[in-house]
Design brief:
The structure is a single chain. This protein has 36 helices and 23 strands. The radius of gyration is 28 Å and the shape is globular. Helix 3 packs across helix 4, helix 8 packs across helix 36 and helix 24 packs antiparallel against helix 27. Helix content is 48%, strand content 14%. A hairpin with a 6-residue loop joins strand 9 and strand 10. Its EC number is 2.4.1.1. It is an enzyme of class 2 (transferase). It catalyses: [(1->4)-alpha-D-glucosyl](n) + phosphate = [(1->4)-alpha-D-glucosyl](n-1) + alpha-D-glucose 1-phosphate.
Length: 846
């Protein structure tokens, strides 16, 4: 097997002269600096100050006395970066020498959060950095606040990816995270007249000290064009693809440090560039816009996370994004990471690519194209290699979230890949017909190519056919994935399907986000729990200790005070500190049922304004929402408007002052989550049973001492089992009950039969919260009464009953504290370190 032609997709000889591969071999092997150890700066306060001032003077080009806060932040970040560099370079050298199997994590999202605090924690430099800045007359808190969070994810999927790469570094597992360096990332959310407005998230505008651009490793990626069959010198017919246009992918490297173990892995994010940025002749003719058209066109690919795809152009751009980053990633590993003489028959021994949802699934035909068209493998051998190199994680139960791409679009943009998918499908359907003879309907159901309503490629099916393993992300989700989403496939290949329940990193979401609780835990059970979260079980006996419960309450109160101060400065919100903090933060989607939470709030308010319930009988609560709606998701935006409208009215009404407060801070992100979650008393996890894949916010709240009110859905099932029924507020239908009710479900009947629900909806519909404008609330009300796809009205009474149990439990301060402590003690299972061990054992075998 030989490479029949030079790759059109890999930059090599045309790389810039700065390519380190051009350095003379004598220097590389004989000069003492070529392979000698890289020494970190001195790990003392004096050493830190010296390095910081050097970065300020020679990196930023300014004196301390003249520096801005941004100068100081960038110098501090680069100082911390220097302490990581030696470990990063040593880790890379060790990985190359050992030739270990690597995890290639392919994800369209990485919701990293701010890096400064995390990297100070990982390097154990927090106290030294604080003392060093104090000596320089600088408040390190101001520098932390200066950092702009990279908005490279939408929610749970991106935060999960960030947790996973953190855990793999902490466990010293070789991993390269691959994704896209979105120039603007997820939009910045603001509210105007209570409605969501999306603004660009210019997270790169003041500089990003955590990334390393590597233009010498650029990859050329093609689109469009045509394919043809040619006969090579050996008389073998081979396909070639001649793209119409190409873009360059430039990698930016980010360090992913393990927790105080000297290991630093790599996150490699790709940015799109034009092959020719600037046409001088056109510019000189006076058409300045046309002169940079190629640059603008190419850079659109990595401009924005998830471009709005309600238009054909938006759909095409999304597919361009997906192919762009996986093509860059595969070629980078095969051509730039593996040794030049590596036998690709052994590729599964060196890499397994984990497909984080369907976004990267186009990588499957891309690897087949590399092996068959470029490297000269025969089809069967290439397919065997490919099947061993991919595994697929499904993150949804919603049919509309399982991506499909129209055959027309795929054929126009990636014609060779469509040919490969057709052949994969043909051979797969032959196997289906052999396994189930005479069952042609089954073959039609399982076909990767859907025929109705339009011809389209079902990416989840392609991933299932090609992947060595398919996993769900919670026990219930994995069961429903096998039984309802992909039942035909699980019958054909039961051994392919497994479960790995999601997890979160305790470094960021306990140790960093909740320093007060972390110190209490360490003082009580000692060090080591941050990398062995099962040790939290040692806290269980302390739940019965009155002094410990009092200290636990002090920590929660201080976290509330910290949150209140933040929201006062950040959003101009004034919140009380002596109420139950009832929190619902997650992406705005109807199945997550923010409307059900809203109905509860309005029901409490209606009881007071109607005179049915004295205000003093209400448990004092502060409700906090955090959510972004996708720009094209009209109903989600209407729900946001209604939550804000209710907030305006409730907060201004003296009848419920001090009893009910509603807050919806804009632009919920990781940085806000790190302050909000440790302060929360009650975690709202109220999706319709059978719709939430897992959730990770539910885990963060439990680990930080909030009690959960929730349905038996996603990872709630496992949380409830672990923390105990007495420490979890369960309500609502089960998934089988939902399915039994669905065929004859009539939401209006619940409205007619439940006086409290009717009074609640009537108050909303009357325009009470919108200045008398009934039309403003009509979209949400009409949807609830006539459609209610996610059965909020059916679960309303059960939810209210559960909330009354919450009120009763919260009234007993000691009992509530005991339950909260047990939630912390029994949630160690939800560490992402455990998730990674499960992946290693069940899927990766690395």
């Amino acid at each position: 097997m030989t490479d029949t032609a030079p790759s059109p997709s890999v930059v090599s000889d045309e790389s810039p002269s700065t390519d380190v591969r051009r350095i003379g071999p004598a220097f590389r092997t004989t000069h003492p600096l070529a392979s000698g150890p890289v020494v970190s700066p001195q790990t003392t306060v004096d050493g830190f100050v010296e390095t910081f001032l050097g970065e300020l003077n020679y990196g930023q080009g300014t004196l301390l006395s003249q520096s801005t806060v941004n100068d100081q932040y960038l110098a501090l970040a680069r100082t911390v970066r220097r302490y990581l560099m030696a470990d990063w370079l040593e880790t890379g050298a060790r990985r190359r020498q050992a030739q270990q199997k690597t995890i290639g994590y392919l994800s369209a999202e990485y919701l990293l959060g701010r890096q400064l605090g995390n990297n100070l924690l990982a390097t154990n430099l927090q106290d030294i950095a604080e003392d060093a800045m104090r000596r320089c007359g600088i408040d390190i808190a101001a520098l932390r606040a200066q950092e702009v969070e990279p908005g490279l994810g939408n929610g749970g999927l991106g935060r999960l990816a960030a947790c996973f790469v953190d855990s793999l570094a902490t466990m010293d597992v070789p991993c390269i995270g691959y994704g896209i360096r979105y120039e603007y990332g997820i939009f910045r959310q603001t509210f105007e007249a209570d409605r969501q407005v999306e603004l660009p998230d210019s997270w790169l505008s003041l500089g990003n000290p955590w990334e390393f651009p590597h233009p010498e490793r650029q990859v050329l990626v093609g689109f469009g064009g045509r394919t043809e069959t040619v006969t090579d010198a050996a008389g073998v017919e081979r396909s070639t693809w001649t793209p119409d246009w190409q873009v360059l992918g430039m990698p930016y490297h980010y360090m992913v440090p393990g927790f105080r173990n000297g290991v630093v892995n790599t996150l490699r994010l790709w940015s799109a560039r034009a092959t020719q940025d600037f046409d001088l002749q056109i510019f000189n003719s006076g058409d300045y816009a046309q002169a940079v058209r190629a640059q603008t066109f190419a850079e659109n690919i990595s401009k924005v996370l998830y471009p709005e795809d309600s238009t054909p152009q938006g759909k095409e751009l999304r597919l361009q994004q997906q192919y762009f980053f996986v093509a860059c990633s595969l070629h980078d590993f095969i051509d730039n990471t593996l040794p030049a003489d590596f036998d690709l028959r052994r590729l599964p021994e060196r890499i397994i690519f984990q497909l984080n949802d369907t976004h990267p699934v186009i990588a499957i035909p891309e690897l087949m194209r590399i092996l068959v068209d470029r490297k000269g493998f025969d089809w069967d051998e290439a397919w065997e290699i490919t099947q061993a190199c991919f595994a697929y994680t499904c993150h949804t139960l919603l049919p509309e979230a399982l991506e499909v791409w129209s055959v027309d679009l795929l054929g126009r943009l990636l014609p060779r890949h469509l040919e490969i998918i057709y052949r994969i499908n043909e051979e797969f359907l032959e196997r289906v017909r052999e396994a189930f003879p005479g069952d042609e309907m089954r073959a039609r159901r399982m076909s990767i190519i859907a025929e109705y309503p339009d011809r389209a490629v079902r990416m989840a099916y392609l991933a299932t056919v090609a992947g060595a393993k398919v996993n769900g992300v919670a026990e219930l989700h994995s069961q429903l994935l096998r039984d309802k989403v992909l039942p035909d496939f699980s019958q054909l290949w039961p051994e392919k399907f497994t479960n790995v329940t999601n997890g979160i990193t305790p470094r960021r979401f306990v140790r960093l986000a909740n320093r007060r609780l972390s110190e209490l835990v360490t003082d009580t059970i000692g060090d080591g729990w941050v990398t062995d979260l099962d040790r939290l079980r040692e806290l269980e006996p302390w739940a019965d200790d009155a002094a410990f419960r009092a200290e636990f309450r002090r920590v929660k109160r201080e976290n509330k005070e910290r949150l209140v101060k933040l929201l006062r400065v950040r959003d101009g919100l004034e919140l009380p500190t002596d109420t139950m903090l009832d929190v619902m933060v997650k992406r705005l989607h109807e199945y997550k049922r923010q409307t059900l939470k809203l109905l509860h709030i309005v029901s409490l308010y209606e009881g007071v304004v109607s005179g049915r319930v004295p205000a003093e009988d209400l448990t004092a609560r502060t409700f906090v929402f955090g959510a972004k709606a996708a720009p094209g998701y009209h109903m989600a935006k209407e729900i946001i408007f209604l939550v804000n409208a209710v907030s305006d009215t409730v907060n201004a009404d003296p009848a419920v002052a001090g009893r009910l407060t509603v807050a919806f801070p804009a632009n919920y992100n990781v940085t806000l989550a790190e302050k909000l979650i440790p302060a929360a008393d009650l975690s709202e996890q109220i999706s319709l049973a059978g719709k939430e894949a897992s959730g990770t916010g539910n885990m963060k709240f439990a680990l930080n001492g909030a009690l959960t009110i929730g349905t038996d859905d996603g990872a709630n099932v496992e949380i409830r089992r672990l923390v105990g029924d007495d420490n979890f507020f369960l309500f609502g239908m089960t998934e089988p009950e939902v399915e039994r009710l669905r065929p004859g479900y009539s939401p209006s009947s619940y409205y007619e039969e439940n006086p409290r629900l009717r009074a609640t909806i009537d108050l909303l519909a009357s325009g009470h919260f919108t200045g008398g404008d009934r039309r403003a609330v009509a979209p949400v009300i009409d949807n609830l009464l006539h459609q209610d796809s996610f059965m909020a009205l059916a679960d309303f009474q059960s939810y209210l009953d559960a909330q009354e149990r919450v009120d009763a439990a919260y009234a007993d301060e000691d009992a509530w504290s005991r339950s909260a402590i047990l939630n912390v003690a029994r949630s160690g299972f939800f560490s992402s370190d455990r998730s990674m061990r499960d992946y290693l054992e069940r899927i990766w075998h690395a």
